[in-house]
Amino acid sequence: MQQIFQQYQAHTMDPKMQEQLNTPLGKSEGLGKKDASFLEVLITKLKSGELDPFNPQTLFNHDVYDKLSEEDQERTDLTAINLMSVIKQIETLWNQSHQPGFQLQNLVDTVFQMKSRFEEKHGDVFVI
Known about the structure:
Blueprint: H1 2-7, H2 15-22, H3 33-48, H4 62-65, H5 70-97, H6 102-122
Helix pairs in contact: 5-6
C-alpha cells in the first residue's frame, strides 16, 4: 500500500481534468422558492445571533423539545449537532460569496431534508 502512495506522491492533476471534476453533474437551475426562503431564514437567524452554529441548543423549539422523552431529547441533540455542522458550512459559503452556488444549494437541501424527516417523527422541535 505504501508503494502506491509513493508512486503518486508527485502527481499533479491536469488543469482541464481538475476543471471537469469541479463542474456540477447536473445543470443547476438555482435555488427554488422553498430553498431560497429556507436559506433566507437560516441567514437571518445566523446574522441576528438567534442561531449559533457552535451551540446546538439555539436550534431547539423548547416548547416542543422540553416535552420530549429523554430518549427523544438525546436523538434531537444528536440531530442538532449534525444540522449545525451543515449550517456552519452554509454560513461559511454564504459569507464568502453571497451567491447560491451548487454546493450551497446542496447543503441547504441537506439541512431541509434532515430537519423535515426528523420532525415528521418528533414534532416541530427546531426553530428553522
